[in-house]
Structures are given as structure tokens and as C-alpha cells.
Amino acid sequence: MHKPNELNLNELIGALVRYGLDCGLVPAEEEIFTTNMLLELFECDEYEAPETAQELPLPQILDGLMEYAYANGIMKDNGITARDLFDTKIMSCLCPRPKQVIDTFRALYEKSPKEATDYFYKFSQDTNYIRRDRIAKDMKWKVNSPYGEIDITINLSKPEKDPKAIAAAKNAKQSAYPKCQLCRENEGYAGRMNHPARQNHRIIPITINDSSWGMQYSPYVYYNEHTIVLNGEHVPMKIDKAAFRKLFDFVKLFPHYFLGSNADLPIVGGSILSHDHFQGGGYTFAMAEAKLEKTFTVPGFEDVQAGIVNWPLSVIRLDGKDDSRVIELADHILKKWRAYTDEEAFIFAETDGEPHNTITPIARMNGDLYEIDLTLRNNITTDECPLGVYHPHNEYHHIKKENIGLIEVMGLAVLPARLKNELELLGEYLTEGKDYRSNEILEKHADWADELCRKYGSFRKETVMDVLKEEVGQVFIHVLEDAGVYKCTKEGREAFERFIASL
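Given the sequence above, the corresponding C-alpha cells read:
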């Protein structure tokens, strides 16, 4: 196979157009048109089509084209961020216009919703909006727990910002367009040093709760078909009765997907609270498979099944044949929880006028039943726990100190990229008996490593990473338990019963 820099521009353009033809992005009728767009981008007046265009992996073609662009002054900077901006510009030459994508999606939807999403998910990868080569680098594994099989991932697909890009972003003129990365104005946007390029990105318009929303995939796909459903307007997150209606409207449209929302308060919410959005997709999390530890009936809602889920966070599950009745009860529980205080259980609805109680909801179809999981959240802080009482405790911050948002709530740890190198280095220190406390990178893991040494005694090179992965998983299970407002203890469950009695 040729290395990129051994191929000339004609061969690289020929290979890219062939890629577009093979995966269906470029119709045969547009082969010449696409070639000419690429020639314009690369400021090239001459072109001789190769006799046989080579079949090459997309990253290799793009690397070769960017080497050419940088060597010829077309791409001014060769850092990660600049390359991401430029290779998106290259891919935009292969991408159909939004209306074509929407029309194809809708035609397939008439056959089946799953055919439509299968097409759109493949399309989002073929355009390199979802970068398959980066996603493949993510570390993923599962660990057993008393609550089911928990998913762990170390996310390596989000590019680290390079120093040049950070400096350039700092000096760049501040722009409020698009207002955020979830605004629909991102579709087709060229990007800049502090905002990703999205010329290869398409959004499918949908209507939920009689309002205009968009459906897209996350470029970082933390799990299969990781879907983002975003409000057409740039308005803040809000958990209310209308949010429950939107969740169920979506799962009616796409019954093979679940849809959930981050909570709408800091600490227990996600990273973007300023733009109303949901996350869903085609993956079954451990939480969805968790059984009920007890059932109960709320007076006036005898037609809706209710129960406490056997899960480290505090979750009430509702099931019913009539979605409007499930929504009524979910709203009743939300309103009760927002106003609920139980000092003995250290649950305060508000302190000094600041509200603390909210819900992380997840909706899905369970056979012919409408099902919603309501995760009770509270974001109170104390001097001992300045990041939150129901937040990962200090002793686990070496693994996870970020917010426990929707994805973690469902049983998937999204851990920082730094852990890959740190775990590999710790494994080396453990197998060789070196002093990890003397290493500034490993110092934060030292107390944990002491515990592992007491538990395992010695470590073998062949198995040390398996041991560390298992133990990282166990830390994450403790993190989830920390986030539960009612612990899985006798006292915790009695306090949970007091809330249910208030319904």
C-alpha cells in the first residue's frame, strides 16, 4: 500500500472521489462535479484522472491531501485543530446538501424508522463527521456489579487541544455565532480555532410536543448510535411536564431508541445547560435492564405501574399503556420532589432560595408499554463537599471528578483520556515494585494503589491492566453510589419510602 506522501495530488483526489462513490456519498452523475470542487480547493488547474483510482482508507487519503495543502501553502497551520478544520472542508466537497439527506431519511422512514436511522448513522460516519478512526481508539470494557454489568470507556476520540490552537483561540475575535455547539446554525459552518467545523454535518428536523427540534448523532459516540435531539431555539434546559411529553413523542417516532435528559441544575446536570437538548440512541444500558426491588401504587394512578429500581442512584420507574397518564404521574412526582425536604436524610428542597432537587429522566418503549425512569437528584454542597454531597467523593477524584450526567446515571462511565497513560504507567510501577508516590503523575493514585497492593500482593505484567480495569470499574460503582440521594442501605431505603409515602 502506498504511504500518503508517495501519492501525487491526482491519485489522492481520484482515491477520495472513489471513496465517495463507493460509500454512496457521491452519485455517479456527480463524479466530475466533485472532482472539480476538490481541484478548486487545492488550487489546481491541471488534472489527469488516474486509470484506476485506488481504494484507500479515508484517514490515509485525508492525511495525504493535508500534507499537500500544507506543503503548498493552502493550509497555513499543521496543528490538530487546523487539520480538523481543513479535512472537514475537504469532506464537504463530497457531502450532499441538507435537503437531499432529509428527503432520503424521510423516504426510508416510510418503510421503517430503523432503516432511516441506519442510513443516517452510516452517513454521519461516511462523511467523517463521526471519525471512525478516532472512535476505534476509545478503550471500552465491562465490569460486574450488584446492579448489573456496568460499561466503562476512556474517551480518546475528542482531540486534545494543541497549544497553538489554544493561543489562536485566545487571540481570535470573539464570535457569538453559532451561540453554542448545539445550535442548528452549526450545520454547514466552517468552524474556527475555538469552534469545530461542521460542513460535513447534517440535522434531521423533527416535531416533538408541537415544536421544532433537530436530530443528529454525537461526533464522539460514547455508545452505539449516540443521538442528540436539540431544540430549534437556543433556550436553557428545563425539566418539566413538557420535557416528559417531548421524550415520549420522540420514542413514538423512533421506538427502537431511548431518549433521556440531563438534569437542569448545575453539578447534577450535563456540560451544556444553556441549550435545551436530549440524548438517546440504540444502546441498552445496565440501568434499563435493572429489575425493580419493590413496586408501589400512587393513589389516583392505579393504571400506571410504579417501582423502585435496584440501582445505585435513586430511581423510580413508571410503566403504562397510556403515555399521557405516565406523563401525569411523572409530573406529579417531579413537583413533589422539587418541594421535598427530609432533614434526617439530608435532603433540602432549597437553601437560601437556591433550589436543589431535580430529576434526570430516561424514556423508552418496553414492549407496548411507555416506560420512564425518574432519577432523583440533589445538588446541595457543604464545606466538606464543595463539589456536591451527591457527587463523586474526594477519594475517587483521581478516576472521576466530573459531573455525573445522564450517560453515567444509566451505567456508562465516560472517563478522561489522561487515564490511559496513567493506568499504563501505574501498571509498570506495580509490576516492577517502583515507588509510585515519587512520580508526580501517579501521586494522585497513590492511596488507591496502596489498597490494590494490600488486596493483590503482587502483580504480573500479563494481567496488571486487567486488574486495573476491573478496579477502575469498582471505583465507578462507588461513584454512582455517591450520586444516589438514597443509599442502598436499610436507612436509605426507609428514607426513600418516606418520599414515596408523600406521593
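Residues 464-483 form the longest helix (20 residues). Try to locate this feature in the C-alpha cell string yourself.
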